[in-house]
Inverse folding.
DNA sequence: CTGAAAGCGCTTACAG
DNA sequence: CTGAAAGCGCTTACAG
């Protein structure tokens, strides 16, 4: 039982046939006589012989492996994308390899190197936060990659990248959230999360401003707090916001970058004695598994990450060239309610 | 720019050298003359040529790809394992492919088929819940797999599987939790989660009973509630438990299968008017990212999943044969406190 | 320093 | 129905 396992030569020799015949048995070719087939089958199963898909791939130019490039799997949203992709891929006979984000934007050595060398049958690249200096690099990497395998983009995909894609636009989603909050009577709405230098597709503040403008509400600079994507980030950002304002000016609603940031916001608000949703409504994004179990249960935007991953695989395998919009929808829970009635200050 | 990309022949022809020379330039062989090297390099970078690692693998018998078999990625604990494995693998020049659990236990066709055919450089198999009828099948699959690649087991690994492994024993961990709760004065301790038919390594109730016995506390059958691993499961199980008992007999502490089940337990308790931790202490397992943000923050057992994944890759690549115990530690937060003083019933 | 040739483990025309 | 041979895209002795 050597580590290398058996080859088609071993099986052919033991069965007393040529390797061509073994190969035919393997692929279920009906031209093989029953007698030969049985003999070969017997050797194959006795030896637990498994043909090398690598060698097969040499002729078929196929690896039955897809790649997925994700910013980071630890964020449950990405784990959901991966799960969807993996399920879809598996159903079609493929497995999927994870590549870290830096595999496609690393300056050292040649970018996209490893991915291209792998000769995958396709790769899904999830484009989210992208420092400005990486934008051109990403374009180049994708171009090189495309020489060797089909590429599908998902996430907040820049409009100028001409690839099949499933994209969502955070500005648009955020505008929808703002409009709904205004409908609930909120006027002091804060936006927490994101980075100033983000690309437009990611800039929730664009939709935020548009939503306010449409309702003739002022844009108040201090209600816009930039921060990273973790619960700690959200907690610190909310803290900063509340510290910088008189309680009478505190927002009555907060739109968080994602559910983790929302968790942090709720914690910071609670520490200040604010009741959610009586004093403060909170809306997250991503609809994580824990959202219903927060106190109060968190209203969130479901971005259907699992289905996104699944659909990306479909696009990849079908070769369709189109660009689609990702679905999203409100999931209403108790963290979001009508604006509080104006009360006197203490 | 055909999808197939260039081959070493294209580059050799364009540079006016033999493929052997191109190959030497590629691997940085110093025997190539400076002039030739530059000429070849120029063609390579102008064409963005990337040698096929597949073809390379034919001679080197290496794929630079590891596999990981996970019960399900959606559970954040497994995503952490994958992340750790991926980080470790990437640092060593490998990428890792995800294989669903059924790829190794599916009855249809030959089990382990796909994995063995992939000729990976190694595979990590995470063994957790395992229906009794799959146990023998798993042993066989692993045996076949081992013919073709090194295997490392992680999770709650059955003692009779003779593979390099990193294992944790839930019975032992649970016993530790019980002892600590008893130290806090608890006497009515419930255990929620798991399946009656689980293997001993997973049977938290074994450690649970031992912990009680050591303290001469009775084992009360109704305090032991079997259920699945989601928050919904936990909520329903807790509900069942509370409904079945007089309030005066309600447990003062709950040990949950994992953090998700713990979330469910807290929700069910809250609905009954129980205060955590004043009336009920709750201990989870896994220390998920949301544990600190639950209300109250959840005490949990950190099983260091990321490090587990990383270490598994080390074992795989180093070829070490040993079996290690996984680390775990308490993360104390507010959900767990001293037992309430006995009070009168309403 | 460089090239011709064999080999990695398969598949697939092409003969017979 | 079956086998000998070429080929997939590389690497690596072996010559020169």
């Amino acid at each position: 039982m050597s580590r290398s396992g058996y080859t088609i030569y071993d099986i052919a020799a033991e069965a007393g046939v040529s390797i061509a015949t073994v190969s035919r048995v393997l692929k279920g070719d009906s031209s093989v006589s029953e007698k030969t087939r049985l003999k070969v089958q017997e050797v194959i199963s006795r030896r637990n012989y498994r043909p090398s898909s690598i060698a097969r791939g040499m002729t078929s130019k196929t690896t039955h492996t897809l790649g997925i490039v994700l910013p980071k799997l630890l964020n449950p949203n990405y784990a959901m994308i991966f799960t969807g992709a993996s399920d879809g891929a598996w159903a079609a006979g493929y497995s999927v390899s994870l590549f870290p984000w830096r595999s496609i934007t690393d300056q050292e050595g040649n970018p996209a190197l490893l991915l291209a060398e792998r000769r995958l049958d396709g790769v899904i690249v999830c484009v989210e936060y992208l420092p400005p200096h990486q934008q051109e690099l990403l374009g180049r990497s994708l171009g090189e990659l495309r020489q060797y395998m089909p590429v599908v983009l998902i996430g907040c995909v820049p409009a100028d990248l001409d690839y099949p894609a499933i994209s969502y636009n955070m500005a648009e989603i955020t505008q929808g959230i703002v409009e709904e909050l205004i409908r609930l009577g909120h006027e002091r709405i804060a936006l927490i999360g994101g980075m100033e230098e983000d690309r437009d597709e990611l800039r929730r503040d664009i939709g935020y401003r548009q939503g306010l403008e449409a309702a003739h509400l002022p844009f108040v600079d201090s209600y816009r707090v930039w921060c990273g994507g973790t619960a700690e980030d959200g907690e610190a950002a909310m803290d900063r916001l509340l510290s910088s304002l008189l309680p009478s000016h505190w927002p009555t609603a907060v739109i968080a970058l994602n559910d983790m940031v929302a968790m942090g916001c709720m914690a910071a608000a609670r520490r200040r004695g604010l009741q959610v949703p009586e004093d403060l409504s909170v809306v997250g994004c991503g609809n994580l598994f824990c959202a219903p179990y927060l106190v109060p249960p968190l209203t969130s935007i479901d971005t259907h990450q699992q289905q996104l991953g699944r659909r990306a695989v479909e696009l990849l395998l079908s070769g369709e060239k189109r660009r689609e919009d990702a679905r999203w929808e409100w999931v209403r829970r108790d963290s979001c309610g009508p604006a509080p009635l104006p009360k006197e200050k203490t």
Q: What stands out?
A: Residues 7-9, 19-20, 23-24, 26-27, 51-60 of chain B lie near DNA strand D (CB under 10 Å from a C1'). The mean pLDDT of chain B is 90. Residues 132-148 of chain B form the longest helix (17 residues).
